[in-house]
Structures are given as C-alpha cells and as structure tokens.
Amino acid sequence: MQTEQPRAKHLHALLKGLSVRTGSLPEDTVVTGITHDARQVRPGYVFVAIRGFRTDGANFVTEAVARGASAIVAERAMEGLPVPLVAVRDARRALAELSAAFWDYPSRRLALVGVTGTNGKTTTCILCKSIAEAAGLKAAVLGTLGHLVGEQVSARDRTTEEASDLQPTLADLAEAGVRLAAMEVSSHGLALDRVWKTYFDVGVLTNITQDHLDFHGNLADYAEAKARLFTVYPALAREAGKVMRAAINLDDALGRDIARKAECEVVGFGMEAAQAAVTAREVVCEARGTRLRLVTPAGEADVVMSLVGRFNVENALAAAAASVALGLPLE
Length: 331
Known about the structure:
By secondary structure, the chain is of the alpha/beta class. 32% of the residues lie in helices and 24% in strands. An 8-stranded mixed β-sheet has the order 10-9-8-11-7-12-13-14, with helices on both faces. Strands 3-4-5-6 form a 4-stranded parallel β-sheet. It is elongated. It starts with 8 loop residues before the first strand and ends in a 5-residue tail after the last helix.
C-alpha cells in the first residue's frame, strides 16, 4: 500500500524542522516526494543519499538527478550539482524527518502500537488487530507478512520499512479510516532510525534472545537497540501530544531490565513474574487450541483461542497488555 495521490511542498518548509542539517538553507524548490532509492525518483523528488550495507547512496546521485530529483540530501559535499544540495550530519535521520514532515506526521492521526522483540512480533500484532476490531475499530498490521487491513494483504520485503516507505503507508492507513495500527519494530529499524518521528501510543516488548548478532555485534547492543523504543520514543511521542505507555514481558530477564529503564508507564505481563499486571491462570493447552483465565487490572475473563503452546499464551498476554495500556476492552 502506498499512496499515489499528488502532493507538493516547498523544500524550505520541510527543512525548517530538520535537526541534522548543517550550513545555510539552499535555494527553495518544489518537492513532490522523498526517497532513498534512486530507482524510485520521479520529477520533483528529494533524493536522500544514505549509506547502506553494500553501497553508498552518494554513488547514485547522478542517476537521481537524471530522473528529475529537485534536491539532494547527503552527508558529504558534492560539486557541480544542477540541483540544491542539503548537507546533513546523519542522512538516515534526515530521511525519517523529511518523510514524516512531507506526509504531515501521519502517526499523529491513528493509535500506533509498536511491537519489538526476538520472537512473537507477528502474532502479537495480529492479536492486537483482532482485539481492536472486536472493540469496533478499523485496524491494520504492518510487519513481516506485509500490510494487513481487514482481510487484504500486501507484501513487503522488510519487517520495518525505510521511513520514506513507512510514512506514506501510515498516511494511507489514516486516510482509509484505520484507527489503530499494530506495527512490528525490528532492532534494525530502531538502530537505523527507520521509525524516527513516528509517534507510538504503546511499545510492546515480547522477549529478547540471541539474534541479529551479525548486525549488533553482541547481545547487550541488541538489547540496547530494542530498549530505544522505551527509553527514547516516549519523549518523541510527547511531541505529538501522546502519552506513550509500554507493555513489557517481565518473565524475560532483559525485559525486566528494560522495564526499569523505561521512560514511561509500564504494564507488565508474564506467566511467572509476581509484578506482572497482566497474567494467565488455569492455562490448558490442547491440540485444537488453548483455554486460559486472563487476569488484568481491568478485570478477568475466560479466553479460548485456536493458538497452541506456551509461547502463544505469552503473545496473547502481550496483546492484552497493549490493549490495557490503550484502554481497549478485552471482551
């Protein structure tokens, strides 16, 4: 899902809020889109040259200009460009800030649940969507399976999209009347600022185990990337007038550590932790599904679900805790 509606803004207006810009404002120009992919450039687009894992976006500036780019954003000087150059300290953060501004900060216009963790993100997001729909809200999922709105699915190739793809997707959802979106937020997405200037209402941590150490180097750095959702993004949410809350797995040792560091109210969940506000009792796992007694600060309820296994009970508790944090009914 990505909007094709015509849109245009002035470069100066977009640059006013750019925290990483260096130097003076370049010549003003009309902007019709933002992208980091030179192949996607259309006339009037701003091309942001980010440094990737395999190549540097600066190598594709000539192609972007040939395709009609109206301005280039880059971390290093370039001579002889026929279009304005915006110098920045951090091109990835610039991409996120420009994309959010161009699409009028669409995460302000819907409730957004960000789900991070090693395992269970997809299932937790789908369960959040189901709870929201049961409460009468139009809801969506963004993540590994693509975009899910109602029963319609559109594929995507990343768990967490680059900001120039994410922000128009959120704009589309808001325009379509989606009231709540549950979004998988990967450690890569947090470390690389793909969700910067995205305003969450709730952040969920499912669990943390060894994963993606080829990128993060060690478990501590991996956990720190996950923790950013709870230590950095609550202050960001306040920019949008949101009071972000967290739903964190307190059965997970690293989860407990992140809960202590969180810069927002935490609704803890778990099957064993005494401090968990959301828990499950009388759990019966059978071949055809699972029965349990759900205990929350808002009350208790008997739950029957087709999902099987303890890990899916934990996913259900994560979604229930997120719903409690949002104030949604769990019936």
